[in-house]
Amino acid sequence: MDWTENHQDGWDLWGKLMAQQPMYQQIADDLRGKIESGELPRGVQLPTEIELGEQYGASRNTIRDAVRQLIVKGLVETRPGQGTFVTMHVDPFVTTLSGDPHALGGAEGAMYLFEVSQQHRSPGKTIPKVEIQEPSIEVSRRLRIPPDMQVVSRHERRYIDDIPWSLQTSFYPMDFTTKGATRLLMAEDIPEGAVRYLANTIGVKQVGYRDWITVRVPDINEQSFFELARDAAVFEVFRTGFDQTGTPLRVTVTVWPGDRNQFIVNIGAVSDPEYVDPS
């Protein structure tokens, strides 16, 4: 694409502005105008530093300063090994973390599809990837099992409006399968939700859960899946469910990119939040 097309008439004005503002600021303002007008659409990759330098007649250091201005304003982002992109505009999704622990499988599976649809959005998710593995230290502590004891993990990628929205992995003690909950081992959806399935099959009922929320930078796989910059932020929520004896029955780890997620925690008697239909 010829990035100087239709801009010849503006060179005189450009020359006047040169004497008033630092060159990097002029370049940043020009690029911002192109982004806001749609000439540089959301999600498109910016020209390289060399190409921008040739377009504006500037050094690479000046171009870097200009792009840094756009990064600070949240207009562009860098992706490791890929380049610099105009940031995507997404309507944040609001998740209620303090929902009913008994509802629709314990706020997983069916509840996710229900909540997304309630906000007039289009939910999607992959078929669970099932593995038998030794848990991480974080998971073994929360399940209160030795770190060398095997668990069943069920991993899903989740989407809203075809945009990658969250990664979720649930871990269950291996002995649940030997007691009869064999569907945990099957790479397929459990329509009623795994929590309700455990209650109906082996009598292990979830009576509550604890959410432990952390914030960190994404790892390489998360950067790629969510299309995030290296210095972006993701929420990592460890949800530990407890049965009627106070024993942990599952640990669900969900990773949510911070640029498209918001959370609500309700305490006491409160009215429902008012959602705004983005359409």
Quick gist of this model?
With 279 residues, the protein is of the alpha+beta class. The chain is built from ten helices and eleven strands.
Main features:
single chain, 279 residues, alpha+beta, Arc Repressor Mutant, subunit A, Chorismate lyase, seven-stranded antiparallel β-sheet, two-stranded antiparallel sheet, 10 helices, 30% helix, elongated
Please characterize this protein's 3D structure.
The protein has 279 residues and is of the alpha+beta class. The protein folds into two domains: 8-86, Arc Repressor Mutant, subunit A; 93-264, 3-Layer(aba) Sandwich (Chorismate lyase), CATH 3.40.1410. The chain contains ten helices and eleven strands. It has helices spanning 11-18, 23-37, 49-56, 60-72, 104-107, 110-118, 137-143, 175-178, 194-202, 220-226, and strands spanning 76-79, 83-86, 93-96, 123-125, 129-133, 151-160, 163-173, 206-216, 234-243, 248-257, 261-264. The strands form three sheets. Strands 4, 5, 6, 7, 8, 9 and 10 form a seven-stranded antiparallel beta sheet that branches. A hairpin with a 4-residue loop joins strand 9 (234-243) and strand 10. The protein starts with 10 loop residues before the first helix and ends in a 15-residue tail after the last strand. The model has no long low-confidence stretch (mean pLDDT 85).
The number of distinct helices, counting runs of at least 4 residues, comes to 10
Instruction: Summarize the helix and strand pattern as letters.
Output: HHHHEEEHHEEHEEHHEHEEE
The average pLDDT is 85
Helicity range? 25-40%
Class by alpha and beta content: alpha+beta
Distance between the termini: 32 Å
Q: How many domains comprise the coordinates?
A: 2
Q: Tell how many strands the DSSP assignment holds.
A: 11
- Radius of gyration over C-alpha positions, nearest whole angstrom: 24 Å
Unreliable stretches (pLDDT < 50, length at least 5) are: none
